[in-house]
């Protein structure tokens, strides 16, 4: 009897109230997960940032010391520089390459799906396998990269030992996987109705004009999406950097999250690593907002609500 | 306008000649495109050819210049040696256990939440959905350290729990988003018909909407498999004992042991890539669908 009583007291009487209850039951896994895996860690992260802790000895309150340490930490600045360079080169290149190839692949030619597959497949190769493969390709004496250079009569490059070439090598690995963005462009291009181009043909617009005034505006939301995803992903590049070069030579490939990983799990500087994580968070948020503000308003939405 | 008028008049004046020119131009254009595509495709697939070719070579043929593209002698034993050197069978089994648990967790939890966000109107819904999108933007690495501390406090290190348990709670913001987009595209009349027949909201979700949702389920399943199979950082942080390793960690440690036996390393890498490629060929449609669903219908 008591349980029925309890049930009645908490069951909403109105239809709207019942709908609210049902709605919250449906989204309750997310709410729980959000609190458990997001809010609690965020709180722990805040606490960690102002502490020194190596997981073993008791944590010590240090205030904002970690941010002072960071300002004088050469490896921190190096990791920022490496990640920024990596992002500034690989994201725009991947964006342009993906878009141009999507344009080419959007033609009606026999066997075009074979091409699409070949360009797309590298993007689903597991990062670990890709790292092992590219470590062999960039082998100075017998690797494919230098075999190619020698065939062209060019001098060989110590890809992974030369600080000048290690980061470009990682960027090449990243570009090999540009196909995932390309597929999204392709879907965007196929969504453009043919009548637009037919009308442009009648008006005598050339290929270039059609590209500029029809294609690019209509796929601009996709370009924008790929840009945001690309920036967030490239600030998190880890597996390749760890397995191919492990940050070396001379920190030339010390990407930001690798440095963070080393601090947390090799030097057991949990507090410092948490402070680095906040820096990463702020950078990604600021960059995303920046992109939204300065590029977002150039994006053309077909049916603006 | 003037250029347009000019074009129109030229077209009228010399219709047969210009028609022929257009045909030629189109052919030339097509030829150019195909040439670029072929060159690009060769460059893109060379690493694969190199991988497979190296994986069948005997050790002494690995370090030869110029390289031989067709392995001679052909040595499939590389695969046996590589996959027996470390217990890759066990690693495969471990990975599949994680994959299956993630599939169950994500397909149930994300579709459940996605349904709530898509088809039930209630106060606060947009706020919570805003949070879903916000968590989508937060990089994994930002919360990596505190999450690790939390899971190690729970005693979950060296178990599969940190790699599976979180997915039972919402199944990841991205998947919720995907399911919401899909549920929104289904007609409300179906739900109304269910309501008239006395179906509860859970019944509508489970018996009417989920069966219609197969394409979205397949898409999410494919990407869940990929994410779990390819994941490196998660197992790297949480799995310590050799008998708990996944294929990814197994390959990474194998690389640490075999510094220069590239033929064996390539064999193990090929073995890790093969399931992904097979999945692609069997479920090609869903790869593209997932990307499109996520990218376009925002």
Question: What can you see in these coordinates?
Answer:
The complex is a heterodimer of chains A (305) and B (298). By secondary structure, chain A is mostly helical. A two-stranded antiparallel sheet of chain A has the order 1-2. Chain A has 14 helices and 2 strands. In chain A, helix 4 packs across helix 9 (179-190), helix 9 (179-190) crosses helix 11 (207-234) and helix 11 runs antiparallel to helix 14. Chain A folds into 2 domains: 2-49, no CATH class; 73-298, MetI-like (MetI-like fold). Chain B is an all-alpha fold. Chain B has 2 domains: 2-55; 79-295, MetI-like (MetI-like fold, Orthogonal Bundle). Chain B is 76% helix and 0% strand. Chain B is built from 16 helices and no strands. Chain B has helices at residues 2-13, 15-55, 59-62, 77-85, 88-119, 125-137, 144-153, 161-164, 173-184, 188-196, 201-212, 214-230, 233-238, 247-257, 262-282, 284-295. In chain B, helix 2 (15-55) packs across helix 15 and helix 6 packs across helix 9. The radius of gyration of chain B is 27 Å and the shape is flat. The model of chain B has no long low-confidence stretch (mean pLDDT 88). Chains A and B meet through helix 2, helix 4, helix 5, helix 6 and helix 7 of A and helix 1, helix 2, helix 5, helix 6 and helix 7 of B.
